[in-house]
Amino acid sequence: MSNATTPTVSSNALDIRALGKRYASTQADGGELQVLEGIDLHVPAGRFVSIVGASGCGKSTLLRLILGLDAQYEGQILLGGQPISGTGRERGIVFQDHRLFPWLTVAQNIAVGLRNAPFTAKEKAELVAEHVALVGLNGFERSWPHQISGGMAQRVAIARGLVNRPRVLLLDEPFGALDALTRSRLQNELQRIWQQERITMLLVTHDVEEAVFLGDRVVVMQPSPGRIRRIVDVDLPHPRNRSDPEFIRLRDDVLSDFLDTEPRPRAEPPARGGLAAGNVALPQLQLAW
Predict the structure, then answer these.
(1) GO molecular function terms here (predicted)?
(2) Most CB within 10 Å of its CB: which of 71, 100, 171, 186?
(3) Cβ-count burial of 32 within 10 angstroms (0-12 exposed, 13-18 middle, 19+ buried)?
(4) In sequence order, which residues have a C-beta less than 8 Å from that of residue 231 and are 6 or more positions away?
(5) CA dist., res. 32 & res. 264, Å (int)
(6) Burial label, 146 (beta-carbon count in 10 A; 0-12, 13-18, 19+)
(7) In angstroms, what CA-CA distances link 281 with 55, 227, 275?
(8) For residue 7, pLDDT beyond 70
(9) Residues whose CB is less than 8 angstroms from the CB of residue 245 and which lie 6 or more positions away in sequence, other chains included
(10) Residue 248 — φ and ψ, nearest 5°?
(11) Are strands 14-24 and 32-43 parallel, antiparallel or unpaired?
(12) Where do the DSSP E strands lie in 30-145?
């Protein structure tokens, strides 16, 4: 793809500063529910950051704010040093449900991501073809969603999220609805795509192993209100090996945040409150062994 359609890497850093989010309470007292509090996060350009936490810690709410679907929040969200404003082509999204249009073919579904892009019809066709190849779907361009597997449909969703060359790609549990074998294969595919494209990626997941396998950093969140417990650097080479002792050590280290009954010593002051084992529904973590 030409440099004209690819933003400079330095413009792709994402900065979240003192972010907080409240919702009106459903209780009779008419109060407010603090969903996120004091979120400070720097995602360097071209890096892959995973966010992991139990249900209710505000992970998906955080992505919703970054995507620009809700402008009512405290703090700042900056992309390339500039505040975000509403939704925009520079921020792509892949959901847990592929959300393909059943009346469109694979190629046409990918082309939806270019609907408002300032490209000619020829340029759009070239971009679609490029991203069909990127996700390994050559030969399926004219297939309908009902004719392909769930894993293939999620590849289409990833291609649609990338085809517009966003500066940041947000992934909201993109493999959560898939079986374990398909999920593992697509994690490998996403790792390959990220290495090739080097787009800044932010993944939300319940799966601790997935978070460590894909992320350069793992952000561990805790609930009530949602805030960052700690950030773990994952200094492992690509492609990653799930049986590597260092990978297993890092996975178990992150997992311990959800199993410890007593706070472990930290190099930095712990966040207010704590995440006790009694507060976590283990099946919701989708732990992969």
Answers:
(1) ATP binding; ATP hydrolysis activity
(2) 171
(3) exposed
(4) 41, 217, 218, 219, 220
(5) 31
(6) exposed
(7) 8, 18, 12
(8) no
(9) none
(10) -60, -40
(11) antiparallel
(12) 32-43, 48-52, 74-79, 82-83, 91-94
Around Cβ 18, how many Cβ atoms within 10 Å?
11
CA 179 to CA 211: how far, in whole Å? 17
Mean pLDDT, the chain, rounded, equals 85
User: Is the omega angle on the peptide bond into residue 239 within 30 degrees of 0, that is, cis?
Assistant: yes
What pLDDT score was predicted for residue 201? Answer: 95
pLDDT-derived band of residue 40, with 50, 70 and 90 as boundaries? very high
The answer on pLDDT for 94 being more than 60 is yes
Instruction: Output b/e per residue, 166-190; b: 16+ Cβ within 10 A.
Output: bbbbbbbbbbbebeeebbbebbebb
Task: Tell whether the torsion through CA atoms of 168, 215, 37 and 269 is positive or negative.
Answer: negative
Q: Across the strands, what pairs with 218? A: 50, 232
Superfamily of the domain at 47-61+86-285: P-loop containing nucleotide triphosphate hydrolases (3.40.50.300)
The pTM is what? 0.82
14-24 vs 91-94, strand pairing mode: unpaired
Torsion of CA 109, 115, 120, 121, to 10 degrees: 30
Tell me: pLDDT of 105 over 80.
Answer: yes
Q: Where are the domains of the chain?
A: 47-61+86-285
Q: Is 218 helix (H, G, I), strand (E, B) or coil?
A: strand
Q: Is residue 229 within 8 Å of 275, Cβ to Cβ?
A: yes
Quick one: tokens of 137? 């779907």
